[in-house]
Amino acid sequence: MKTRRSVSPGRIALFVTMLAIAVAMLYPFWVMITDSLHTQSQFISGSGFSLGSWRQLSAALPVGRQVLNSTLICTVSIFVILAVGLPAGFAFAKLRFRASSLVFLGVVSAMMVPLQAIVMPEFVNITRIGLTSGYFGAVLVYAALGTPFSIFLFTTYFRGVPDELVEAGIVDGLGYVGALWRLVVPIAVPAIATVTVLQFIQIWDDLLVGLLFIQNTADRPITVGLAALASGRTTSIPQLMAGSFVSALPAMLVYLGFQRYLVKGLTMGIDR
Amino acid sequence: MAAITFDGVTKIFAGKPAVDSLSLHIDDGEFMVLVGPSGCGKTTALRMLAGLEEITTGRLLIGDQVVNNVLPKDRDVAMVFQNYALYPHMSVAQNMGFALKIRGESKDVIRSKVSDAAEILRLTDYLDRRPRALSGGQRQRVAMGRAIVRSPQAFLMDEPLSNLDAKLRVEMRLEIARIQRLLGVATLYVTHDQVEAMTMGDRVAVMRDGQLQQVARPQDLYDRPANDFVAGFIGSPPMNLLRAGVARDGDVTLSIAGQSVTLPERLASPYHLANGEVTFGIRPEDIVVGATGLRARVERCEALGAETLVHLSLNAKGASQHLVAKAGPRTTIVAGDDLAVTFALEHAHFFDVTSGATLRVGS
Ligand SMILES: Nc1ncnc2c1ncn2[C@@H]1O[C@H](COP(=O)(O)OP(=O)(O)OP(=O)(O)O)[C@@H](O)[C@H]1O
Ligand SMILES: [Mg+2]
Q1: Which of A78, B151, B193, B222 is least surrounded by Cβ atoms within 10 Å, i.e. has the fewest?
Q2: CATH 3.40.50.720 fits A61-266, yes or no
């Protein structure tokens, strides 16, 4: 027999609220999709259906290439952020070394510096070392921006891992590096997922860094491409919507993929 | 398998010695228990042996190798942690085989060693489980299993039973002692439970404030404590330690709380007793409650089932001393009674008032 939950007024109110929120969240996507399925003139008149804007988009913009660029930039940046953040977090949380709390304080304060405040000096630096062609300059900037937060998050997370776990591994014959990769990282999946998703969304959605630090047109990420489209002389709204949808999709997919771990990551420490 | 030697080992934390020139030898195959009150440096001593803590001064040997600067992974000792520290993302079998895997043993070797250990520990049915899905006692056995599959030079255990309930503790106490004897690996076992110390160890080392007080077989520790600290620490309830005046004239007259007790020459001779003051020690079971002897008033009775603890105050001329005696299970003694007590003086102990050291001749 199925047990039926009672339908109390409270539950109905909750349901209605959640529904309203869901509609508010999904409405922009609806607009993006429906508007993109018009031509510019159909859009103005408000009726009709056409895939023309999608065709125009791929003609006006190397969408595939740009999505690939964005993906590459995100992947490499996040890889660097994790590769630096995990060992650094481990060191701050588990090792005793001179001035560790001072250094940690320095790292945490770096988190507070907004990109806009340092973007010009950064630009000068990156240009001087000649990294504005290709992705690498942008990757470096993204990594530098994301690393302090990831170090902070991993340090906090690893502090919750009992010292004895690491020590047991060391007595069993691991070094610190082994203890990090074989004992700590496997139980840090929620923290890793959190960093990955948050950084992915941030980097994927970013315009400023891509615009400034990637000078080669061919290496541009999708956000820069869309911005170019929007600032063109004849901006086609349906075409822009199609582009926006394409660029929003990967971030959503990554979020959905990691969601399971993400919830654990953001509430971590609560039920350990 | 190897012997372990602490040779004047000192550990200083922030200017204060946590372990103070510890010299202790553990024979190959011996079960050595390290006891002492909280904060006396037991864990620190163990961690230095495991290589988790650096040694400030002194030498530490495993076999005849000085290991002061040997990395933990090269010391080949196994440690059982108080909270077990099992790897949460590995199954029981993986937990137990991990150290072997790190050392590059083949899968078959690992499997057979793990299954042998599981057999000894009665864990065979749980090999595929994660630690999360085990009871406290089972986790404890996995922690033991992780140590024994390695056939290490030595076992180090830091209060491995303190997280278990009383019944399981008794069970695992026997179990650990059995396994240790079976494997014959030198073991340093830290506890602050003196029942564990008395029942498990071949020998017991008592520490206080980082300093070793005495190392002896359990019964010797009980019968011949080297000082008043050991006397008061080993035994439950602890030995009564009373201030007594000594007047020696062939026989010795002790005055305790204004009352006199005569210690015949024969019983006084094993001790250096000179006129003056001593600390007189008598265990609760060596106090006889009867009609004659020192006058005492009952302050409180604690019925423990198998026996009753009688708290007494010896009272005279304003000097009062507190005393605990043991009586039978269904005694009629109640608080407020005035009684007389005599001491089984052949089991009495005498300690120096200032140093606390035993006054036994030849100690
Ligand atoms: N990492 C450390 N830094 C500073 N002091 C420490 C450190 N570890 C231990 N101590 C100090 O050293 C002394 C001995 O500690 P230890 O942990 O060895 O005691 P213990 O005998 O194991 O006590 P317990 O029975 O409570 O476990 C204590 O005074 C403790 O405060
Ligand atoms: Mg301890």
Answers
A1: B151
A2: no
